[in-house]
Specification:
The chain is of the alpha+beta class and 253 residues long. Helices cover 26% and strands 32% of the residues.
Length: 253
């Protein structure tokens, strides 16, 4: 198994910890660069499957286009419309309005908007009506993949107290991290039991894939699911990357 890892994938400390864990566990990996505005890799990968890919959305698309196996764990279940229906009222933005990017319209003066597709053309953000057109133009100007009119989800702004990330592999919560306290970045591997309990309950209800990342939050209305992400491009925060690398090594492909 060859692991293809994009250069400077995450924050420097996370990236170094990930590579250290790979080295300690004897992972066969290669670090690559992606030539901007292309699907070319440096160095080029000519090895046959099996190949893992860890990187940006660009590398995920390259892995899918080249048919790498297992490549990445990403499918249509990572679309907001699918997982919001599967988890229902357990999600933070339950009842969000779905529309085309070009047709964003709401009665809310301030609102939250995110792409339905997990391979995000832009990050979910809070915006007001007056800034909408300027923001939309900015997204269009810096997106290399926004060639169609993707669907987005619009909802009211929610109050969030804490946010947690969990890495899930083959029905198990492998590791996780607190990553936000209010609006501030706050990294802590020690996660409160109730957060673990909620995440475990959610993966008993439904899972989008054998391996994925689940973000949850403490809100005014108890614990809620913020989103689900592709494990091949998610940041680690303070998660135990040694446990994560080991779990991925042990997966039966």
């Amino acid at each position: 198994m060859l692991w293809v890892i994009q250069e400077n994938l995450f924050q420097e400390r996370e990236y170094e910890n990930f590579l250290d864990a790979c080295d300690r566990q004897g992972v066969n990996y290669r670090i690559v660069k992606i030539i901007p505005f292309s699907h070319e890799l440096v160095p080029e990968i000519i090895e046959p499957n099996p190949i893992w890919a860890f990187g940006s959305t660009a590398l995920v698309r390259i892995a899918q286009d080249r048919g790498w196996h297992p490549g990445v764990f990403h499918n249509n279940n990572f679309n907001f419309k699918v997982w919001s229906q599967a988890w229902g009222k357990n999600i933070l933005n339950y009842g969000a309005k779905i529309c085309a990017f070009s047709q964003i319209k709401t009665d809310l003066d301030i609102f939250f908007v995110r792409p339905c597709d997990d391979l995000k053309y832009f990050s979910g953000t809070v915006i007001d009506k007056e800034s909408l057109n300027a923001w939309r133009d900015e997204v269009l100007s810096r997106s290399n993949y926004l060639t169609k009119d993707p669907e987005v989800a619009i909802s009211s702004v929610k109050t969030i107290y804490k946010e947690f990330r969990f890495f899930v592999i083959d029905n198990n919560l492998v590791t996780g991290s607190l990553y936000k306290l209010g609006n501030k970045l706050c990294l802590d591997r020690n996660i409160e039991p109730d957060a673990n309990k909620f995440a475990s309950k959610m993966i008993e209800i439904w899972q989008p894939s054998r391996a994925f990342v689940l973000d949850i939050a403490i809100t005014e209305d108890n614990y809620k699911i913020v989103e689900v992400n592709c494990i091949n491009l998610a940041g680690f925060y303070a998660s135990d990357v040694g446990k994560l690398v080991n779990a991925m090594q042990e997966m039966i492909i």
